[in-house]
Design brief:
By secondary structure, this protein is of the alpha+beta class. Helices cover 26% and strands 33% of the residues. The chain folds into two domains: 144 residues; 118 residues, Protein Transport Mog1p, Chain A, CATH 3.40.1000.
Length: 273
């Protein structure tokens, strides 16, 4: 039994290790790379924080070569699938389509990106060369090789679809709506304002946050919605309606005149499971 467990663990580690041989004709050039949270700046000094805020755990990387072309191949492990998808949303090209490979992927001539389970994979071409087919081969091979979650975070389906801007739902790892009180959650864009949902550790903690939000906004009006709610007009956030449903805090901010803040927030609250 111990041997079986050890073998399974070894196979799992191998699946999450970058391998140039996943695409025919490509071989490793130089030594493999390995970084953890406290050493990542040595590799990407100017952008390490962009990984760390998504609960980066570690990265393994290699450089692959074929003829005169090279591909930088990195696999980053985040704390959870939610954070892996979060960094994907933050770094994806909004002008390009997202493909349903793993949880999500983008492939274009000089870059391939895949997110599956808690792994965020990047393949970057160093030369001005169109390697779309090669990058797709790598991405498809990785999708087969890496086990785990392929379903998108459930919160993406909570935002009412009517008038929702395409591909606008994204995870915010800290300071949702620019408020430190709202530690992490999701934001969605509508033509008339922004919707959000924030996760707290418990209903009790969420209730405490609502009390602090009332004090932060000031001159709030109570609203009969979910477990607790208020609406107001804030200097920075504009017309808003915030509610608490269990351990979740959500609502709309920056609403245009004529929009029914309470009705919009009620529609969002009804979808939160």
């Amino acid at each position: 039994m111990k041997l079986i467990i050890l073998l399974a663990a070894t196979l799992a580690v191998a699946a999450q290790t970058p391998d140039c041989a996943l695409a025919p004709g490509w071989t490793q050039q130089g030594a493999a790379r390995a970084y953890e949270a406290d050493t990542l700046f040595e590799y990407i000094n100017g952008n390490a924080e962009g990984y760390l805020i998504y609960r980066f755990q570690k990265m393994q990387g290699v450089t692959c070569r074929s003829g005169g072309n090279t591909i930088v191949f990195d696999i980053s492990e985040m704390e959870s699938p939610e954070y892996a998808y979060g960094i994907f949303c933050a770094t994806r090209d909004p002008k390009l389509p997202v493909e349903k490979i793993g949880m999500a992927a983008q492939i274009h001539p000089r870059k391939g990106v895949l997110v599956k389970d808690r792994y965020y994979i990047e393949l970057s071409v160093n030369e001005e060369t169109d390697l779309t087919k090669v990058l797709r081969s790598f991405i498809l091979a990785l999708d087969k090789r890496i086990p785990g979650q392929t379903a998108l975070p459930a919160a993406l389906g909570w935002f009412p679809p009517e008038n929702l801007a395409a591909d606008s739902v994204r995870m915010v790892p800290e300071s949702v709506l620019g408020l430190r009180l709202l530690r992490r959650g999701y934001i969605a864009q509508y033509p008339f304002g922004r919707a959000f949902v924030v996760f707290e550790d418990s209903p009790e903690v969420a209730a405490q946050v609502m009390t602090k939000l009332r004090a932060r906004v000031g001159e709030t009006q109570p609203v009969k919605l979910a477990d607790d709610a208020f609406q107001a007009t804030d200097k920075y956030l504009g017309r808003l309606c915030f509610f608490r449903k269990g351990r979740y805090i959500g609502g709309f901010a920056g609403l245009a005149e004529g929009q029914d803040a309470q009705a919009l927030s009620a529609a969002l609250a009804a979808r939160i499971k």
